[in-house]
Amino acid sequence: MPEIRVTPLGAGQDVGRSCILVSIAGKNVMLDCGMHMGFNDDRRFPDFSYITQNGRLTDFLDCVIISHFHLDHCGALPYFSEMVGYDGPIYMTHPTQAICPILLEDYRKIAVDKKGEANFFTSQMIKDCMKKVVAVHLHQTVQVDDELEIKAYYAGHVLGAAMFQIKVGSESVVYTGDYNMTPDRHLGAAWIDKCRPNLLITESTYATTIRDSKRCRERDFLKKVHETVERGGKVLIPVFALGRAQELCILLETFWERMNLKVPIYFSTGLTEKANHYYKLFIPWTNQKIRKTFVQRNMFEFKHIKAFDRWGWGASAALTPHPVVFATPGMLHAGQSLQIFRKWAGNEKNMVIMPGYCVQGTVGHKILSGQRKLEMEGRQVLEVKMQVEYMSFSAHADAKGIMQLVGQAEPESVLLVHGEAKKMEFLKQKIEQELRVSCYMPANGETVTLPTSPSIPVGISLGLLKREMAQGLLPDAKKPRLLHGTLIMKDSNFRLVSSEQALKELGLAEHQLRFTCRVHLHDTRKEQETALRVYSHLKSILKDHCVQHLPDGSVTVESILIQAAAPSEDPGTKVLLVSWTYQDEELGSFLTSLLKKGRQLTQPPPLPSPSWTDLGLHFRTVGAVGEQTLQVPSLGTEALCHVPAQAAVSS
Amino acid sequence: SLGNRVRLHLKGKKKKERMDLLYCLSGHPTLPCNVLKFKSTTIMLDCGLDMTSTLNFLPLPLVQSPRLSNLPGWSLKDGNAFLDKELKECSGHVFVDSVPEFCLPETELIDLSTVDVILISNYHCMMALPYITEHTGFTGTVYATEPTVQIGRLLMEELVNFIERVPKAQSASLWKNKDIQRLLPSPLKDAVEVSTWRRCYTMQEVNSALSKIQLVGYSQKIELFGAVQVTPLSSGYALGSSNWIIQSHYEKVSYVSGSSLLTTHPQPMDQASLKNSDVLVLTGLTQIPTANPDGMVGEFCSNLALTVRNGGNVLVPCYPSGVIYDLLECLYQYIDSAGLSSVPLYFISPVANSSLEFSQIFAEWLCHNKQSKVYLPEPPFPHAELIQTNKLKHYPSIHGDFSNDFRQPCVVFTGHPSLRFGDVVHFMELWGKSSLNTVIFTEPDFSYLEALAPYQPLAMKCIYCPIDTRLNFIQVSKLLKEVQPLHVVCPEQYTQPPPAQSHRMDLMIDCQPPAMSYRRAEVLALPFKRRYEKIEIMPELADSLVPMEIKPGISLATVSAVLHTKDNKHLLQPPPRPAQPTSGKKRKRVSDDVPDCKVLKPLLSGSIPVEQFVQTLEKHGFSDIKVEDTAKGHIVLLQEAETLIQIEEDSTHIICDNDEMLRVRLRDLVLKFLQKF
């Protein structure tokens, strides 16, 4: 029985370290290859030894697909390909391919330079890993090999984020990666066609949330920034360079323009400025509005937002009274954002807005959980007087969005990943009850097996198909029709042809099997007269059939031949020879029994029962399918002379 | 009538209902418009607009031109001047004084409202789209890549702007009368299809036409009505340019249009996917097969430098997208080394800014080198730097800022390459009188001599450097060898050497079997040998099949199944279980919605070894068996049962009494020795 097997190595009832193994029709695909923010030990990467203990991963995987550039989806990639060893293709979209190595390098620097980790992947490994990447276009059908094909759909989570369809023959799986079903300030909404996969693997970060309108959150955010600036405070927004940063910049930029504000907004240079360039160059991946207006105004060329460099920020920012500053990284665990935070934390007029999730142990997590006295290096204690705000701007689909996507794709089953077990449980029930689709939520290392029943594509010879269609000329063309043919299987080439053609192709002759039955009648008339009577008898009851009286005295009913003979010395007995081929067996044997019943031919036979109609229909079908020319041998002499004389008499 | 002009190339074939036909609506080989009837779909391939017709019209000057507004009217030899309002004499030629008109594809050969989809291969081949989608009852979908649509929109916008900017009251039509046209001097006399000539569309029509386009990506498989799949492939000619594969499961048509193997800015051509085509329709080859594009670029640069060094200006009539990107890139590398960095480059077009901006955002459609620049991230084209350093400036028109910034000597890129409308008309008038200036023709679509005709006599230098990167005949011949189509179909122009070089037998398509050629308003029957169709066998049915190995590696299974056909897809399902026969021969009446499902008798094959057969008979209780030899085989006599069985190589004949039990027993014994099909 064919089946689809799915095993999450990461993101099974968890967020982080996304890595899902899928086996479909004998092909093995790995979806994402992420790291876990919450761990610093072995657990930060998926356990690839699950795939194989010894031997190269290349032999066990047909391809790897990366859904987007976030590190929890691609952070383990260089480790996987260069340190564990994988040389097969890695598929991702163009923007992901462009941005991914930068984030990986950033990640490596923090791990090695800041945390001093040994045995981490190197810059060269990132480069070598990226050489194995094959970039894909949206909606392009990529043929991984002769059978396995993949196709990317827009996911709207970050620049270049994609959902992937993995397809072998008529079996398919869709993996959503992370996605967003409502367009935001810079990206469009996820979209997929009614591709009816066997399985949809979806993220479920917000499995239980129906989020309030984004507009409200945006208004809140702007209000807080504006109020702080109005009262002369400074605003720090720690962000990751790519993704939310651009959305918030666009938000502030348009607000500043509308309100005609003059307060400067700063953006830390380096990565972030570079990031804006990516957005400018990948405009086709942004939302409709930005794409339409980019010639007049590229939304990622900010008028109010200025860059400052790492070392000069003090000079420019200090000179301006109350600036708004975007700085990296987003969790305040190192770098520029932390540096600025330390300078501004002491003033209650100032504000820090955390626009995303913070991992435990980071300064961001501490202040969000209410800690106001922070121990810094050198035993310094930093007192946080500034206001601390949290605003979620994560671009994930909420419960409504997930249900909407499931509705769009119409899968046979759904499998949840990238979420918390409890929330998944809730969504699983909702999906099963409301959409009547079976739903799974395996933990890491747990395998879900789904039996599939793919139909088998074969080539049907046009002759055979047309013959069947021609029979469908019956007024009701939609009525299903019975088709008879021979399937020729040669290697993986399957062809359905008419039986005659199959015989011909194989160089075989048809073996004709014919029956001739003797029906004895009491009839004193001459053979010719007997035949004529038989003819008119049959003609009167077989109204739907072609009953003919041939010049040589024989009678035919369609292809069945009836001859009358006077075989013996008994003049009161006639023998009817009824002859038919194996293919016409039913009608033939029916006729004999009919003739047997009407032996006397004196009484008109009982009126045709409804079975006549059935038989008629059937007979037409048989005749057409057989379609051989009727080569009825002459029966009389040869057949009769071999019938032992006494046999004829005795009956 | 049109019917008479249609030559049906049915070449000895009877016209069948489902024949695949190609309707050829355009006579211009690089601006094709064909309609393919394939399976049950009607697909238009490209929508090219032949603009060479505009060469017969007077230029539309942006600034009042005393010369052009005071031309003498033309009169017949006998002095009859009834056409003098419509036709003017200029520089020794006669031109139509009217809103310029374009030559449309044939619209009467086939009912265009029956077209299901239109496939666009590149932005030059979609210029007739509004005429088709807005005025023929077309209700289908148009497919094109995103760069094709965006740049195509710019080309249309520019065209509409050029024409609408210079409103002209007069629309001449008298001269088009067949009897009058005969009397006109060449080339007007020889102008073809003048009755189909139409004025330009409006922006409203453009927007409406473009709204019918659905964006597609390279290698995207698009299903049409379940019967046909179409796929665009990179053609290497322009941003987003594509060739198309149109295929069913057993037939494949490749549509090759405007392809290039040169390494310029677009993504390279995908040749491999064109393999195994039954029919390859080949259009859009280079219009200047004798010119080498690399050499032309070199000549362009050196002539430009020469003119500017002598204090002259250079005018480059061009389209706002395409080769201009490559020229700017060459100049970017060239001007510093040639000491021309102080010479301003002006790009004047209503869509100049958009074109330059759009070129930078289509990373995914660019060649590898340019793509990797985007990954840095840097703009893929160096004209970004030319703009940043103020070496290249762009303006929507000569009016406004340009007149303030304008410095000479300079290089001006502007349209339209026909020299009949657009800002280029102004520069021709302005610079034509000085021999210091040079006009360099790079676009291959218009004969430069004809383009220049209304401006003669000219003092300015004219350089002809046509840059056409599309396939030449050597490349075509290599391509055809590589992809091996069964049949090639192409415009008739490609099956003979160009008229001006009739001895150059190398300037034509050479393939076996010879290419089938078409001309405007012809219908070709495409030579398909269709033998198979795809059908899906449902898993339950597949499970019930019993394969039998007939020869090594070949297995057979007889199939009796219910055929379902829906949305052009065929499906085989298991037959419903036969209804249990009720008493005797009476059966239930087969109701209408249940298919006739009785098991059909297969064909038989094999032969019956008499000895073994007799043994089997004995084993089954028959006695008193006698075997007689005959000429062709044997006769087995079952004396007791009064039965005889004639056995020959390919037939068996059972002759018995009307004893159904006996007959069935014998039948089953015979069948044991035979294979069923």
TrEMBL record, chain A:
GO terms for cellular component: cytosol; INTAC complex; integrator complex; nucleoplasm. GO terms for molecular function: hydrolase activity; metal ion binding; RNA endonuclease activity. GO terms for biological process: RNA polymerase II transcription initiation surveillance; snRNA 3'-end processing; transcription elongation by RNA polymerase II. Keywords: Cytoplasm, Hydrolase, Metal-binding, Nucleus, Zinc. It is found in: Cytoplasm; Nucleus. It comes from the Eukaryota. Residues 245-367 form the Beta-Casp domain. Residues 16-233 form the Metallo-beta-lactamase domain. Pfam families: Beta-Casp, IntS11_C, Lactamase_B_6, RMMBL. InterPro entries: Beta_Casp, INTS11-like_MBL-fold, IntS11_C, MBL, Metallo-B-lactamas, RibonucZ/Hydroxyglut_hydro, RMMBL. Its cofactor is Zn(2+). Component of the Integrator complex, composed of core subunits INTS1, INTS2, INTS3, INTS4, INTS5, INTS6, INTS7, INTS8, INTS9/RC74, INTS10, INTS11/CPSF3L, INTS12, INTS13, INTS14 and INTS15. The core complex associates with protein phosphatase 2A subunits PPP2CA and PPP2R1A, to form the Integrator-PP2A (INTAC) complex. INTS11 is part of the RNA endonuclease subcomplex, composed of INTS4, INTS9, INTS11 and inositol hexakisphosphate (InsP6). Interacts with WDR73; interaction is required for the assembly of the RNA endonuclease subcomplex in the cytoplasm. Belongs to the metallo-beta-lactamase superfamily. RNA-metabolizing metallo-beta-lactamase-like family. INTS11 subfamily. This is Integrator complex subunit 11. It comes from Gorilla gorilla gorilla. The gene is INTS11.
UniProtKB/TrEMBL annotation, chain B:
It comes from the Eukaryota. Gene3D superfamilies: 3.40.50.10890, Ribonuclease Z/Hydroxyacylglutathione hydrolase-like. SMART domains: Beta-Casp. Keywords: Cytoplasm, Nucleus. One of its GO terms (biological process) is snRNA 3'-end processing. Residues 567-593 are annotated as: Disordered. InterPro entries: Beta_Casp, Integrator_9su, IntS9-like_C, Metallo-B-lactamas, RibonucZ/Hydroxyglut_hydro. Residues 324-452 form the Beta-Casp domain. One of its GO terms (cellular component) is INTAC complex. It is found in: Cytoplasm; Nucleus. Component of the integrator complex, a multiprotein complex that terminates RNA polymerase II (Pol II) transcription in the promoter-proximal region of genes. Belongs to the metallo-beta-lactamase superfamily. RNA-metabolizing metallo-beta-lactamase-like family. INTS9 subfamily. Component of the Integrator complex, composed of core subunits INTS1, INTS2, INTS3, INTS4, INTS5, INTS6, INTS7, INTS8, INTS9/RC74, INTS10, INTS11/CPSF3L, INTS12, INTS13, INTS14 and INTS15. The core complex associates with protein phosphatase 2A subunits PPP2CA and PPP2R1A, to form the Integrator-PP2A (INTAC) complex. INTS9 is part of the RNA endonuclease subcomplex, composed of INTS4, INTS9, INTS11 and inositol hexakisphosphate (InsP6). Interacts with WDR73; interaction is required for the assembly of the RNA endonuclease subcomplex in the cytoplasm. PANTHER family: INTEGRATOR COMPLEX SUBUNIT 9. This is Integrator complex subunit 9. It comes from Gorilla gorilla gorilla.
